[in-house]
């Protein structure tokens, strides 16, 4: 009797369709990261001073509405100290990018919610994946709140947003991106069996997230403008005459020169881990994933150098941020391919744990 009841439910599961939905979310998050980079680089992030998740979807449509939004912007320190004298037309330009960024957030929220309801109602989500898809939706909601928390830091006393909150905002987006991609790949594995992340994959992702953290600090502190030379900072490896904050640990968060220095050279730590991962996955039969990791890490390092040498040119810096997300995707895909090539704990009857804290395989 139990088998007769379970069989119809099992046949209604649609892992490939659920995977395609999650990959769509990944594409939208990637677009969000790119637009977020443009928003930051054009200093547009504080142009909308209110958080209206629903009614804010409609931009100003009349002259009076535009003037009202401009008046709200004129009250904050960024305008009063940096942009006094800005015209309404100039304001519209920065308003555009922040509005697009928030609009993408709303789209991602709907794409994460509506198909989830539909799949759940039709019992199309395979067993064991209901809570994972729910986590993805909740993560998207939390990310929206973090975005406003970040913007709020620049509305009263500062002329920009907190670089620490910016880092939290970016890393949360990329964490959701990585988790969603891993879940989508799990759903495409035979019988939708979850895979455990290999140790080398965990170390590579850890190294990359440190680099992404300092990249966010560089962006938030405008540290990319500190030195436009490479490999030396000016004429020295590290400028000995640079200001040093007290206590010393503050320099790893608040000192633009130290942050840029770490971001420059930690990239090669990521490179080392990425090469090891790429070689292992190639030996396991993942030649395509190996090529993607090599191409992404090489391109990303070259774009990082070019960002410095061009004085943080907008198109180069945006490409650098976009490639960071692609590098993350390639590493996740390579780690998943390596995990799939190994004997699956599920297939051995041992049980398995998806990409969550503590889910580490010994490879």
TrEMBL record:
Catalytic activity of the protein: Fe(II)-heme o + 2 A + H2O = Fe(II)-heme a + 2 AH2
Keyword Transmembrane: yes
UniProt keyword Glycoprotein, yes or no: no
Keywords attached to this entry: Cell membrane, Heme biosynthesis, Iron, Membrane, Metal-binding, Oxidoreductase, Transmembrane, Transmembrane helix
Transmembrane segments: 21-41, 103-121, 133-151, 166-185, 197-219, 261-279, 291-312, 318-335
Cofactor(s) named in the record: heme b
Principal subcellular localisation of the protein: membrane
Annotated positions binding heme: 263, 320
Pfam families named among the record's database cross-references: COX15-CtaA
Locations listed in the record: Cell membrane; Membrane
Membrane topology of the entry: Multi-pass membrane protein
Domain of life: Bacteria
EC number annotated for this UniProt entry: 1.17.99.9
Pathway(s) the chain acts in: Porphyrin-containing compound metabolism; heme A biosynthesis; heme A from heme O: step 1/1
Protein purpose: Catalyzes the conversion of heme O to heme A by two successive hydroxylations of the methyl group at C8. The first hydroxylation forms heme I, the second hydroxylation results in an unstable dihydroxymethyl group, which spontaneously dehydrates, resulting in the formyl group of heme A.
Family to which this protein belongs: Belongs to the COX15/CtaA family. Type 2 subfamily.
PANTHER family, alphabetized: CYTOCHROME C OXIDASE ASSEMBLY PROTEIN COX15, CYTOCHROME C OXIDASE ASSEMBLY PROTEIN COX15 HOMOLOG
Record's subunit section: Interacts with CtaB.
Protein name: Heme A synthase
Species name: Sphingomonas rosea
């Amino acid at each position: 009797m139990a088998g007769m009841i379970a069989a119809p439910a099992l046949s209604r599961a649609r892992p490939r369709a659920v995977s395609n939905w999650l990959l769509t979310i990944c594409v939208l998050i990637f677009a969000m990261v790119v637009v977020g980079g443009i928003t930051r680089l054009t200093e547009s992030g504080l142009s909308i001073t209110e958080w209206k998740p629903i009614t804010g979807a409609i931009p100003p449509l009349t002259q009076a509405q535009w003037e009202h939004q401009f008046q709200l912007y004129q009250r904050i320190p960024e305008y009063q100290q940096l942009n006094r004298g800005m015209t309404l037309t100039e304001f519209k330009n920065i308003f555009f990018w922040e509005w697009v960024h928030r609009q993408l957030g709303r789209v991602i929220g709907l794409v994460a919610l509506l198909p989830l309801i539909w799949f759940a109602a039709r019992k199309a989500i395979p067993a064991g994946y209901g809570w994972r898809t729910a986590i993805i939706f909740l993560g998207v909601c939390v990310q929206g709140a973090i975005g406003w928390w970040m913007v709020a830091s620049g509305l009263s006393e500062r002329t920009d947003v907190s670089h620490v909150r910016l880092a939290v905002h970016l890393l949360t987006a990329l964490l959701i991106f990585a988790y969603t991609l891993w879940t989508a790949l799990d759903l495409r594995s035979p019988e939708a069996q979850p895979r455990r992340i290999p140790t080398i994959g965990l170390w590579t992702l850890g190294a990359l997230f440190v680099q992404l953290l300092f990249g966010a600090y560089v962006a938030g502190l405008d540290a990319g403008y500190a030195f436009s030379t490479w490999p030396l900072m000016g004429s020295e490896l590290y400028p000995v005459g640079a200001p040093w904050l007290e206590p010393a640990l503050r320099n790893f968060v608040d000192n633009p020169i130290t942050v840029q220095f770490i971001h420059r050279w930690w990239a090669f730590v990521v490179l080392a881990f990425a090469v090891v991962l790429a070689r292992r996955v190639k030996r396991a039969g993942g030649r395509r994933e190996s090529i993607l990791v090599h191409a992404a890490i090489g391109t990303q390092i070259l774009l990082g150098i070019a960002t410095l040498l061009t004085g943080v040119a907008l198109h180069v810096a945006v490409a650098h941020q976009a490639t960071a997300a692609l590098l993350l995707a390639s590493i996740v895909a390579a780690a998943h391919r390596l995990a799939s090539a190994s004997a699956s704990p599920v297939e051995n009857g041992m049980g398995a744990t998806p990409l969550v804290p503590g889910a580490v395989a010994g490879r």
